[in-house]
Amino acid sequence: MQEIVGESLARRLVDWGVDTVFGLPGDGINGLMEGFRRQREKLTFVLVHHEEAAAFMATGYAKATGRLGVCAATSGPGAIHLLNGLYDAKLDHTPVLAITGMQETSVLGSHYQQEVHTPLLYHDVADYNLMVTNPQQVPGVVDIAVRNALAKRTVSHLSFPNDVQVAAAGADPYRHVSPGEPPMSSPVLSQPTVPAAQDDLARAAEVLNAGRKVAMLVGIGARGARDEVLAVAEKLASPVVKTLPGKMVVPDDHPLTTGGLGLLGTRPSEELMEECDTLLMVGTSFPYGKYLPSPGQARVVQIDVDASLVGLRLPVDAAVTADARLALRQLLPMLQAHSDRSFLEKYQRARDTWRAEMVSLQDPSRHPVAPQYLMSCVDAAASSDAILTCDSGTIATWAARHWTIRGDREFYLSGNLATMAPGLPYAIAMQRAYPGRQVIAFVGDGGFAMLMAEFLTAVRHELPIKVVINNNNSYGQILWEQIVLGYPEYAVRHRQPEADFAAWARACGGYGVKVTDPKALPGAVREALAHPGPALVDCDVNPDEPPMPGKVRYEQAQHFTEAFLRGQPHKVATLASVARDKINELRS
Ligand code: FAD
């Protein structure tokens, strides 16, 4: 059988170590599908129900493994559907290759059906972005696309016209002047683990040694540097503050960390940022400048592998362009041990108080179920190496504060795109990458409903993911944002009837249980986690539970009060919830 371009593409992906393509076929990629079919022994095609999910899966796969994620979609609508997931990859610095179809070259430009020029459409999202027009380009351009995605931790895109997909591999219909051999090299990328320059390290050490109240802010870029982060923090007597994606860098129960920063962060982290005189940022592009020290308050050292991302939020006194682990190792012997540990100890005490407050919110006696209690039940029952994925919404707050990173646990969400709906597809892809691990999607009813057909994907591919739905039948985060802005809530609560997602799980052939009674919750969660196949717990939670900031600001309190005075439709229920935890702060 003659090799076609579709197969040549698939073979080259296999050469690069790709074992999974997430996607959906269509008449724009039949030649590519035939190529994937011919390589099916080495390359699994995970058939999904929506291309957006395929792109999230490729992103989740790459986030969890550090390897290339690959997704495929047909021309026109399929390619358009991929976009949101691809932006998730781009904004979170994740290597993903998107493969799309295109109409035949002979009809391009004729307003043909589904003639969407995907390289133009993908101009902003893809760093390497090409329509393949000659079979001779393959596999050379595949190599370049893969290298770009991996080296720059971003999105590459290749689009294949229908006729090119099924053309004989290596054919060259247009040759008249030889351009030389098409580019092709070994399918290996030598990733530089960038060590730091001595001058940069010396400057960084000088700033850190001079500090009296040193704080560290670590992000997902420090993921492979847990030991080094802790060793440096110990020496500098520095509390370690974590970004939300960086939650898994240091265990939540480690004495040196005060937890997260930002709206979903902790009060001690926020307050120590206001007090520190020196800040060491490692592997982070934390976006919220208002939670960082005021300009001039602290001297700043920043370590990042990408020099173009240094100094985005704060003026930097010492910049170190290097891999976090290497740089911290190099820096450690240059640091003087700080004997005054009072700054650290002050915030360790504040952290203990904060944790006790968080535990008190996990109140099992509340009815409807408190979302904090739901998250705590999952936290208590999950294994020590469980992976938790999450969506954007109030669930991110509950996960940030009540999912404990300990042991080898991991945590993923759409950080910088902050899109709804990746939690379920991420979990599916991560389960595929790590068949033996417990993978839990902790999602809201809003995000789950967007791509809920993918639960069927999990059942059909025998991927035993667990889904826990924090079901408030509303867009809870937006509800609170409207209130904090000073507006009465509008169009954020769904009407009745409420969806029964457990019934959907069972209809798919999975395990599904609906929980409304807090007493039934721990057992239901344990049973679902113990189930050998895909399982779902749909838990009704209190829709009026506020995802309160660690430290309530005066303007937020003022807007909140004003919104109530203007007639908040659910004010009694809302006030009842708020009163339980932070009403005193709102009144102050
Ligand atoms: P990134 O922005 O991805 O930055 C990582 C950095 O590490 C990059 O600069 C990269 O170049 C660098 N890097 C990568 N590899 C290495 C290496 N080997 N060595 C050195 N450097 C490396 N986030 C919060 O922190 N607090 C919040 O309260 C918060 N609220 C959120 C609420 C919702 C609903 C959602 C969806 C998201 C929220 N986020 C929050 C996430 C937030 O939007 C950002 O995504 C996040 O703060 C950025 O985290 P990061 O800096 O760790 O990751």
Topology record:
Blueprint: H1 5-15, E1 20-23, H2 30-38, E2 44-47, H3 51-65, E3 69-73, H4 77-91, E4 96-102, H5 118-121, E5 128-131, H6 140-152, E6 155-161, H7 162-166, H8 198-210, E7 214-218, H9 226-236, E8 240-242, E9 257-260, H10 267-275, E10 278-282, E11 299-304, E12 318-321, H11 324-331, H12 342-361, H13 371-381, E13 387-390, H14 394-402, E14 410-412, H15 423-433, E15 439-444, H16 445-450, H17 454-460, E16 466-471, H18 476-485, H19 501-507, E17 511-515, H20 521-530, E18 535-540, H21 554-565, H22 571-581, H23 583-587
Parallel strand pairs: 1-2, 1-3, 3-4, 4-6, 5-6, 7-8, 7-10, 8-9, 10-11, 11-12, 13-14, 13-15, 15-16, 16-18, 17-18
Helix pairs in contact: 1-2, 3-4, 3-15, 9-11, 10-12, 13-14, 13-20
